[in-house]
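call fold(seq) -> tokens
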Amino acid sequence: MLKNFIVVAWRNTVRNRTYAALNIAGLALGLATFLMMYLVVRFENSFDRYHKDADRMYQVISYDKFNEPTSHVPGAVIKFLRENSGVESASAALAWPPNVIKVRNENLQQEHAFYVTPEFMKTLDIKWIAGSPDKSLSAPYQVVLDEPTAHRLFPEGAMGKTIRVDNAYDVTVTGIIQKVPVNSEFQFEFIISYKTVDRYASWQSNENNWGGGDSSHHGYVMLKEGVEAADLEAQLRKQAELHKEHGQYAYFKLLPFSEIHFTEDNDTYNYITPHWLPDTLFYIGLFVLVIACINFVNLATVQSVQRSREIAVRKILGSSRGALVCQFFVETAVIVLMAEIIAGGMATLLVGHMDYLLSTHVASAPVWNGNTFGFLLLTGLAVTFASGFYPALILSGFQPMSVMRNKLAALSARGISLRQALVVFQFGIAQVMVICMLIALKQMQYFHTQNLGFDSKSVITIDMPDSGDEMKREHLRQQLLKHSAIKDVTFGLTSPSSTRNWWWWTIKHPNLANGAATFRLQFVDTSYFRFYKIPVVAGRMFQANDTSKTNPVVMINEQAVAALGFATPEEAIGTKLGEGDNVELRTVIGVVKNYHSQSLKADIVPHLYSFRKSNFYLASFRIDPLSAKEAIALIGKYWTQEFPDNYFKYAFLDSDLRTFYEDENKFSNMLTTFAGVGIFIGCLGLYGLVSFVCTRRTKEIGIRKVLGASISSILLLLSGNFLVLVTVAFAVAAPIAWYVMQQFLEQYTNHIEMPWSAFAVAGAITFIMAVMPVGWQSLRASRANPSDSLKYE
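ret:
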């Protein structure tokens, strides 16, 4: 019986190849979209879940006295955890990529470099090719490489080789590990023993320190079986209270390993995916698949007219309704199977493009495995049932006598109303995505074009290899300013707005709540504000003799003036501020205009500026945009002369600032792509429905033409109802899209007003896309020769 069903299904598919092609195309697009969304969501949710003890592993998150989270964990906390009876292991890790490594006298760049304890490496499921945690990371100046890095640096063999790090010390290769899976927070390529930090930067690893530090210095803990994280958090809170006089943090939380990848306040070692993104991806994929299923239902019912006599004959010959339902489900399953095969191929080919759109690494992970095939099987069964249920009931319900008399009860007004409702629902979903896409793009345009309060155009930045060498800095500046391609040079801790190296400091003043608050700390030279065209609104800029040691003076921004309780910037000039644990007070000599030092998603924060020459970690060069190649060559030439033992790497500031909005870029890219897919599938459905109407009304059209009806009147007659449905869909979609995007915009401190033009543009786009298939099919019907449809009357 099943074989017979399959044979008949295949014959019907071949016989009705046009409708089969439309069905397969729509379902293939929907299934490919849903499959790609599944692959992305599965990948994002798999981060660090593969470790065998992942359910007992946590990252320690610190919270300061102002309830602000940070990923920095003091060494004293690691020591306390290590000695705690409920802890199996506690360890520290520090991400600190060197400015340069030297191999065979060649300067190279090395990303993904870490200082790690042996205990931490034991907790992770990492395969060792050579060496072991205890042997390879237990002594100072040891380094472990991952396999690709080892082959890149030492093709002849890496074990026992020496590498010069930052022109400061040598490390010996004592181990090699397999490349870490891409779905891990810890992309270890270059792992230096943590004990090296004691020799090279002991302030980072000081186990008596309860205060602040580098946000890349993380703490990790594995609890013993049965120990609750909340119990350990309570103990840490008590320790923070005991050391509050010398500590910076009020309490600590334990973040499960499975949550690290989704925590936006965390300074992670890999990229962050916000919690809402995987859910949004899943629902968009599901909506596109629903559109495809509706498309199938509409196209299947179109075929009911052509197949009505076949069904009547089957029933007259004794076929039961149950057998007919099974037959139509098998036909649906055959089409779904072919669509799934095509969808699988499309997803395999396009998953790399998805990586580009969403900035993920799905293509680098195993795509096809048992879970993928299981997902396709379950999805195929669900789509077969959802798409085939209604057409099977309708087609199997035809009454033979009514069919033979050309009275198709199945095509009653109720059936047409259902199809109309499906069209409205289908295009409603598509138009919600189009409207959301346009508003998201408007918000992204706002982010990229809004005035940040400083001039970032034509600015190249380079990390300084030696932040305290004033002679080299000034010589580099003077050499470059001799050339017209270089307009200006300045040095500071960071650029005015940056994605990294944020320093925060506790500022003390009687006007502040509880006498203290956290200000953003920025080190700048005397030309910094002039270079970035940041106006000084009161007082003066720094001068060459304003060093922190001889003349402790600072500048602040307008937001800091407000936080300090002054009505005007002028009132703040001359006020004394305490800075951290320093006894000596700093005098405010100037106030600069507010600018956005973080993304436009956040408020402007109070800033404190200090002229401290030993903390200039970034060089900024403003170049002539018409001579960009010449300028870059000049910077590279003089840079290499001043720092011959360092790797030259530059970046354009505008490009760096765009990284603030990676999540929003993912969201808008995703909507742009799949809104188009949804509309295209919807248009296939409209094409099928118009075909259905034209088939039913062939004789009516012929009679109207014989009686003198024009092509335009027939065109309006056939297409008018469908364009009304698209309009109704827009009326339903508009308020839904408005609500969704209002919630989206309100999460940003700086955002656009709801752009009503986006609704008009979305309606116009959808209307034009709908007119194309409807108009084409209606035009074909209206231009047909009436004698062909009336010759048997």
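The two ends are 41 Å apart (CA to CA).
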